[in-house]
From TrEMBL:
Residues 55-397 form the FAD/NAD(P)-binding domain. Pfam families: Pyr_redox_2 (PF07992). GO terms for molecular function: electron-transferring-flavoprotein dehydrogenase activity; flavin adenine dinucleotide binding. One of its GO terms (cellular component) is cytoplasm. The keyword Flavoprotein applies. Keywords: FAD, Flavoprotein, Oxidoreductase. This is FAD/NAD(P)-binding domain-containing protein. InterPro entries: FAD/NAD-bd_sf, FAD/NAD-binding_dom. Residues 14-46 are annotated as: Disordered.
Amino acid sequence: MATHDADPLLLQANAHDSPNHRRTASNFAPPPTPGHRPPSLHSKAPTGTAAESLNIVILGASFGGLSCAHALLDDIWPQLRTTSTAPNYRLIIISPSTHIYWNIGAPRALVAPGLVSVEEVFIPLEPGFHRYRGLPVTFIQGTVIAWEVPEKLLTIDLHDRAARARFKTVRPRNTCDSDVGIQSLEYHALILATGTSAHSDLLSLHGTHLNTLGALSAAHHRLAGAKTIIVGGGGCSGVEVAGQLATYLNYRGRGVARRSVKKEDWKRILLIASTDALLPGIKPKVGQKAIKALKALGIEVRLNTRIVAVKEDFDLTGQVKVELDDKTAMVVDAYIACTGVFPNTKFVPKHLLDGKGYVATNSKTMRLDKIGYPGVFALGDCAAYSSNYVMDVYTAVPIVLHNLLNDLLAHELRLASPYGGNQDQIDSLVDEEFVQRDVNSHLCPISRYGGVGWLLGNVLPGFAVWAFKGHDYRVCKAGRVVVDGGNPYAKPVGGTRWE
């Protein structure tokens, strides 16, 4: 894998086969043993159908995709190849970006350069896989643009045309020179972890990380010279962005020594929400506290007002025209959309999606039952079961991997006895079921030292919001997501990488 977007290659993964790298996680029940192979069989090359490696493909390299990738290599890989006829496997990760974007810190990062460093919010993926030297892992920097379900075939738009020559298992879709960047890839098992994207390219990746880096730079320039700013959306993102803008652009100093900037440098900031309260869906007291905190920073809050159109650079001054549902319009210097997210599922056939465009999974096994064959899963924000909450990712990962292991072992047993002799062992592979945790939390840093929050049914004081999130937006935990796929909100000691 490359360390920059100009070179996608392709992670020929690397880690020494040490005991630490071949452990079995306690989360996974030990699979039924179809029969130990004699030591001599471990080195015997497979023949026939098993001679060609089977591709296990993960789409997406953010929280869910990275967690699945590391768990597969650490915990599942050692449990495969249980028979002499078992195939080899290759893990392939497909993502538009070679870097993860720590968008948890986006509300502060977008305000001005230096508040959150580039190195803290854009973390390269390659170093996280250095310890897998020698294992068959490949990274493809590209975007899946089509999925042929019966053929088990993905069509990929490669972001670097050189990837075609260096990834031999990707075969050209056709021989036209104009299409050399469009490739097809067959898979045996598939995990969809493509997540969601915000409407603003400041709040999530839209393609390569260089796109977001450029958007942040442009926003810094525009906000520095802006006199009027509108933030659209009354959810957590809107509240945080408005609060961070006011805190760092309209005030100097900290704590009791805080003072406002000069009148000529003051920026008028409006937060416009279509709902009748901020942070809808949370206890009303939290939304009321948010309004009070925002107004204390000089932010104007307008509720029950829907933004119906935004026209960027509509005149020669480069200003933005924001049209509202009351037939009025406002001309401002900057507009930031915090109006929700949409699933990254354009490539998924419509019959596999729910009415909102999310992947329809079996809410217990995480499989896509409509496909009609095993080995295809979806988890995280792109899946219908998720409420776009981080724990919906990490509680589902062990379930997906356990059930994927069952599917792979069942395939190995069928290869070993194509006439059904291992059916009892296949039947003994019991799936685990996902149980969604009713633990909803929201942490919204607003000022430099305060904010509003909701955790385990309790309203959090401002200093707790600062301690849990606001002091550094948890950038200190970003490396863990890349290095071992761990939950950035996990307990500091004990538990698993997901808890």
